[in-house]
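Attaching the record inline, Q. Sequence:
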Amino acid sequence: MDLIVGSSSSLRGSVRIPPNKSQSFRALIMAGLAEGTSVIHSPAVSNDWMRGTEALELFGAAVTPRADRVWEISGTGGKLKTPDNIIDCGNSGIILRFFTALAACCEGYTALGGDHSLRHIRPSQPLIDALNALGAWAVSTKGDGHAPLIVRGRLKGGSATIDGMDSQPVSALLLAASLADAPSDIVVTRPGEKPWIEMTLDWLRRCGVEFSNSNYERYRVRGRSRWKGFEYHVPLDWSAALYPIVAALVTPGSEVTLPGMDYHDHQGDRMVVGVLRDMGAKIDIDGSTVRACSSTLRGRTIDCNDFIDQFMLLAVVGAFAEGETILTNAEVCRYKECDRIAAMAHALGAMGASVQERPDGLVIRRSPLHGAELDSHDDHRMVMTMAVAAMGARGTTRIRGLECVKKTFPNFADQMRALGGDMQTA
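Structure, as predicted:
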């Protein structure tokens, strides 16, 4: 299905933002490892969530959906069984990395596979090497550091070094180390995406896992940790919130309200609000309500690493901002659902932007954008980002491959239409 987007004169109204996927998955996994029953309210239910619940059940947990968006998880008490089937991770890097690490905490062999991006773009070698160093056995079947992967436990503990440019392998290793047979000392080189690591550490604290953290470069995690079940309400997603926020900023006469947001949650993307304000954005936060209005923006240099999922959207902001916007420290974007640096350079160029690709980012200059034919690359953030750009551009833009937005913002097009956005599906 394609998304056809025309220029929007103004956007007005309120948007209901979906729950945060990163918090949902951490809650799911920690509940699956807990003793007893946990209750998770309003998780981000998507294809990824359903694959994650299926994977968790293969490890011995029981996951039951109840009424009113409540899910109950009967945990394993940290005693995982060997899955009796291959774990299909689909398009989810978090499922591949987190469950690869958990596979090292049970006896026997576990096989994990996934789609093209997991098999060719999203590297797993740093996690493979670290698991092997801590006494487990892990291998890429093709020998190229990508899925399919095979893992055998148990994780014994000890010392390991892992590349931290991508936070998911580090988070996965920290979670698994809490179940290892002995304490683990973990050294992280090139630590990046630190807010996502902090989110993981917050869950370890919440569950009583003993660990130390030295500047995100060195950890010591006590093994054989156990914790009780819990109740958790998943906060709304700042990543999703930023699409209607930026759409309001770059379209004339717009005012958009987002209720129910928690600015104190451990989501790095909330920091983009401050970046946008520094660029001249009119964004007000009153308690849990966010309001964004049409704004005159100024270019600036932005280190994107703490909010890497917003790299593409900030590139669009750069096309509407006076002067020059330089996005840096985003090399990890090349290893997401697609090469997001190259994909954004191509898409913005096709829409008439002045854009220069760099190894770790982009340079964008204010440019009048026009409609174009674009490909989503099966990347949910690509669809939403280019839709925002199209609303502020002249003419009509067609984005091929809308279905992938279900990953994080299933009703994105409907919500934007309700605000007055010119969006059709075909």
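The longest strand covers residues 158-163. The chain has a mean pLDDT of 97.

More tomorrow.
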